[in-house]
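USER:
Class, as today's exercise, take the chain set out below, and explain how the chain folds.
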Amino acid sequence: MPFLEFHGITKRFPGVLALDGVGFSVERGTCHALIGENGAGKSTLGKILAGVHTADGGEIRLDGRAIHPATPLAARELGIAMVHQELAFCPNLSVAENLCLGDLPRRAGFVDRTALRARARAMLATIGVDIDPDAIIGTLSTGREQLVQIAAAVGTGAKVIVMDEPTSSLSAAETSELFRLVRELKARGITLIYVSHRLEELFALCDHITVLRDGRHVITERVADTNPHRVVTQMIGRELLIQSPVHLTREPGTCRLAVHGLSSGNLFRNINLEVRAGEIVGVAGIVGAGRSEMVQAVFGLDPAATGEIEIGGRPLPLGSIDAALAAGIGLVPEDRKRQGLVLGLNCRENTVLAALPELSRLGWVRRAAERTLAQRFVSRLRVKAPSLDTITAGLSGGNQQKIALAKWLARSCDVLLIDEPTRGVDVGAKAEIYQLLDELACEGKALLVVSSELPELIGLCRRILVMRNGQLAGEVARENFSEATLMRLMAGVAAA
């Protein structure tokens, strides 16, 4: 008998049918992959199981018994927990306080701090991690915070754990630690629902794979019986054609962005680089190498930065976002939800946010011009949304990323700084974003792209700069591209 069963699960949001009669089963003590394009319904299904959302129709059965988890607490009592992609704790409280938040130990009407720490240590010990119970959650890395989430799940007796994009923001070392833990939890008989876009992870960790497309169930099969190419075709409903970037066949133009001796305390120092019109230059490096901090300084977000920046041969004042905007620079940040978008605004409002001065007259926004401009770029980027008035928070990750890019295209920026262009984005949307970046380079824009995915940089860029410990460790030309070469530079290891 299957351990966990979904029968005809349906879920509607305003203007969107997120899940349409989804049904499949999961075996006990296995790692079951859930994959599909952005908007396919993967995270929605996981959140229904974990009590975050309530299904509009259908039934879930656990160990042969129908369950209806209406809240996360109800799901937790049924032995179901979720490890969220984004922050799921109170960042200003300690690890121990977060772990015991629903059931704080008391003595004489006050919180028993000794018992609190002891209970937290016991929960952390269940997954074999050493984290200070008194550490403030907000000071932990994303990887350490996810381990605390897993400790909370396992420590309260979860039999089913849903992991939503668990490695999207992790370093290589943190990812390796998570993999070890997933295998250990499986060995203990815990059932894992693993939601991810990264096929290599699914084939390394999972026993079965379920593909969703447009809110419908496509197939569930053993990982041993399929392959990555077949899965991608099932996800997107067509063969995925990867084309070589067209901009690489053209000669770059004049220098659009020049950086000389850019430094900022211990974050990065003596950065020198150039990006020409029609060129995509990549920036590689391990987490903490200073990549994001460097592009943020170019955009004027670092008041402590020193050095020189030129845009089209003209000096750019450091530490001034207004000056960067006036010079035609746009920044698509790593964290689109917190820094790149206003999630409470709709698609139209987010798309034109950076172009409001051009759309305003006497302090009033010209609504017709605003809608026309937004429609132009939402259509160009093929954003999947019911309408321009759809709230951005309700879009899938890939469509949110397209809106974050559209915001700067609507402003007609000539220099684009793009940090992690496809983080949390599915295979089909990645291909669309790569094509868009290639088109922008062909239009003569200069693109500086930061990415943790080396195949992404190798496929996109003319040159790749490698940062290590806040400094440029080297530059690799396209004819010398290889993951081994880049990784040696990133790690500071000499070639054999």
About this structure: Residues 353 and 392 are 13 Å apart (CA to CA). The chain has a mean pLDDT of 88.
